[in-house]
Every structure is written in C-alpha cells, then in structure tokens.
C-alpha cells in the first residue's frame, strides 16, 4: 500500500479487483462518464509490467496508425489490422486489444476471451515492432493466461523465441500450421466473372452453417459450427447456388480477422472455375468496402496457392505465418 505524509493510504488493486472496478465504473455511466472515462483498465502482472486495453476511440486511432505502416509491416501487422478493422464496424466478437504503451506502442495483442473448453478456434495474434518487446510481453507479462489452452498466431521467424518462452513457463507447445500470407494490392488484375456464374453468386445465410461446417478441414464439431454461424451472420461471404436445389455448391467466408478463408467447392462441381469466380467476386467486394484483401494458404496446399497467385495475390517470400498451440486439449 502507498502511504501519504498524513497517514492515509492508497491500495494497489489486484487482477480480480480490477475486473470488479471495471464493472462498478460501467454501472455509473453515463452519470460519471465525464470524470471516469479516462480511467483505463490495465492488466497488471505479478512482475509489475502492464498492458493497456484500448477503448473504442483508441481502436479507431490504432486502425489509422497501422494502415499508415503498410506495406512495410503488412506481413506482421495485417491480421491485427484486420481484427481491429472489423471491431470498428461490427460488434460480433468480444476481442480485447492491448498495447504495451500508449500512444507510442511496440506491441499490439489481439486476445479473444477464453470462455469454455471448446474455444479452440479463437487465436491470439500479435503485431510487434521488435522481437525484444514481443519477448517481454510473452515472458514477463500475465495478460495471457498460460494455464489454459491458447492458440497464438505470429511470424514463423519467432518460433525459437516462442518455444523458449513455453519452456520457461513449463507449458506444452506444438507448431500446428505454417502458411503463406497472400495479399491483393491491385484488384484491377482480377479477371471478369462469367455472367452465367455471376448470376448464381450470393451471400451465405445461417441455414448453410451445417454444410460449411461438415466440409471444413477443422470443422464438424459443435464449436466449429457456432464459429461458422457467427461468421456468416456478421462478416462478408460469397457462395454459388445450384440453380435447381438453391443450395450452395461453392463458397468462401471471411474470418473475424478480415482474412478470406474456408474456400470450398463440392466434389461434383469442381473444374468449372467456381473458386476462381468466388475469390474474384469476394475480393472486389472487400476492396470496395475498404477491407484488407488477404488470405492464408497452408504450405502444402499448392492448388490454392496457384489459384491466388494467378489472381494477382502476392507475398513476401521471406515471410511465413505460423500458429502455435499451448496446453492442447
């Protein structure tokens, strides 16, 4: 406790008390918002380091700051930028965004709250200006709960550091995926969509969630179903409807990070250029609405890599995105 010259005291709040104070302040709004709004809730670790959670106004500022850094930082920052871009427009996922300092930050951490054992598809992602700052956040800060399952998305170049932190924390870790990060800078290179296919393109609706879930590589569970339904409900999607059944035969979705994904064509309808048409249509739509237009393609998926490359998507050949699972269930 901090003791003043007159004998009164100030008590430093612990993590549980901070959560209580946040609730108490929120209940006082709007009566006390003028005097209380500037009180930022900080995540305080046992070692005394802090991460500041950004408020609505700060999120808008960060979006602008990150956009101004492109293309220099697009590989390390595009996913964080995509999350923040979506959050500033759609209140669908309760993702928390933290910085190590404000307004001059070195690290931004996008962290979805862990709610239940099945939250396997909620990945924490990081934008960092230097490895030392990133190492400090993972190694010396308790913003991340290392006792629970965690999926961390970052650059493959940080693999050695991530593994070292896991070893120090005595946390089991697995590298689960390595991907090309493909971006579309110039939509004018996209080919026109054939009129016959274009007339069949529309958005997915929630009734299609089960079909997408059953065909997704990581799907076919109740948790993935809920995630996919949420994506269809809140984020852009495109599909080709069969003329007779009026059911989707090919589709592509958008993740909460704004990345395109889950591109799929039913086996019996392949070879007709549907995937090419969907990616072209979706890319134009996203670009026209200001979205970053990008996707992740697993290294072994040479077919999708060729598709995106032929459509004008490019990558930094020195960069790979990687996902690491901690405390795998």
Write the layout of secondary structure elements.
Elements: E1 2-3, E2 9-10, H1 15-28, H2 33-36, E3 42-44, E4 50-53, H3 56-69, H4 74-87, E5 96-99, E6 107-111, E7 123-128, H5 131-140, E8 150-155, H6 159-169, E9 173-183, H7 195-198, E10 201-202, H8 209-215, H9 222-234, E11 238-241, E12 248-254, E13 260-265, H10 274-288, E14 294-298, H11 302-310, E15 321-326
Parallel strand pairs: 7-8
Antiparallel strand pairs: 1-2, 3-4, 4-5, 5-6, 6-7, 8-15, 9-14, 9-15, 10-11, 11-12, 12-13
Q: Which terms summarize this structure?
A:
35% helix; globular; single chain; four-stranded antiparallel β-sheet; nine-stranded mixed β-sheet; 329 residues; 15 strands
Descriptive report:
- The protein is α+β, with helices and mostly antiparallel strands and 329 residues long.
- The chain has eleven helices and 15 strands.
- The strands form three sheets. It has a nine-stranded mixed beta sheet with strand order 3-4-5-6-7-8-15-9-14, sandwiched between helices.
- Strand 12 (248-254) and strand 13 (260-265) form a beta hairpin.
- It is globular.
- Residues 2-6 and 31-48 have low confidence and may be disordered.
In summary, what is this structure?
The protein is 35% helix and 22% strand. The protein is α+β, with helices and mostly antiparallel strands.
Major sheet: 9 strands, mixed
User: How far apart, in Å, are the first and last alpha carbons?
Assistant: 40 Å
Sheet-strand content, in percent, reads 15-25%
Question: What's the shape?
Answer: globular
Number of helices: 11
- In the sheet with the most strands, the strands line up as 3-4-5-6-7-8-15-9-14
Residue windows where pLDDT falls under 50 for at least 5 positions? 2-6, 31-48
Number of strands: 15
Quaternary structure state of the chains depicted: single chain
What percent of residues adopt helix (DSSP H or I)? 25-40%
Calculate Rg over CA atoms: 22 Å
Round the mean pLDDT to the nearest integer and report it.
85
Topology as H/E string?
Answer: EEHHEEHHEEEHEHEHEHHEEEHEHE
Alpha-beta classification: alpha+beta
């Amino acid at each position: 406790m901090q003791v003043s010259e007159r004998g009164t005291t100030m008590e430093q709040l612990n993590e549980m008390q901070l959560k209580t104070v946040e609730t108490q302040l929120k209940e006082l709004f709007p009566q006390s918002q003028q005097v209380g709004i500037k009180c930022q809730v900080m995540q305080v670790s046992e070692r005394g380091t802090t991460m500041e959670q950004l408020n609505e106004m700060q999120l808008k500022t960060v979006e602008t700051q990150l956009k101004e850094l492109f293309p220099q930082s697009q590989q390390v920052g595009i996913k964080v930028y995509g999350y923040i871009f979506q959050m500033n427009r759609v209140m669908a996922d309760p993702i928390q965004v933290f910085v190590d300092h404000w307004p001059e930050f070195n690290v931004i951490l996008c962290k979805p709250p862990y709610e239940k054992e099945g939250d396997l598809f909620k990945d924490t992602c990081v934008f960092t200006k230097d490895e030392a700052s990133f190492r400090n956040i993972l190694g010396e800060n308790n913003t991340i709960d290392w006792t629970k399952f965690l999926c961390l998305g970052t650059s493959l170049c940080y693999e050695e550091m991530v593994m070292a932190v896991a070893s120090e924390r005595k946390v089991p870790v697995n590298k689960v995926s390595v991907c090309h990060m493909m971006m579309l800078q110039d939509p004018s290179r996209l080919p026109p969509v054939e009129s016959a296919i274009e007339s069949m393109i529309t958005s997915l609706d929630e009734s299609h969630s089960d079909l997408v879930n059953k065909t997704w590589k990581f799907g076919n569970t109740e948790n993935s179903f809920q995630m996919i339904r949420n994506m269809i409900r809140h984020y852009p999607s495109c599909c080709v409807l069969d003329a007779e059944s009026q059911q989707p035969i090919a589709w592509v979705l958008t993740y909460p990070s704004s990345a395109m994904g889950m591109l799929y064509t039913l086996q019996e309808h392949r070879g007709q250029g549907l995937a090419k048409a969907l990616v072209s249509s979706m890319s134009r739509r996203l670009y026209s609405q200001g979205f970053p237009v990008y996707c992740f393609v697993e290294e072994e998926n040479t077919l999708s890599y060729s598709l995106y490359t032929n459509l004008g998507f490019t990558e930094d050949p020195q960069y790979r995105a990687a996902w690491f699972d901690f405390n795998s269930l």
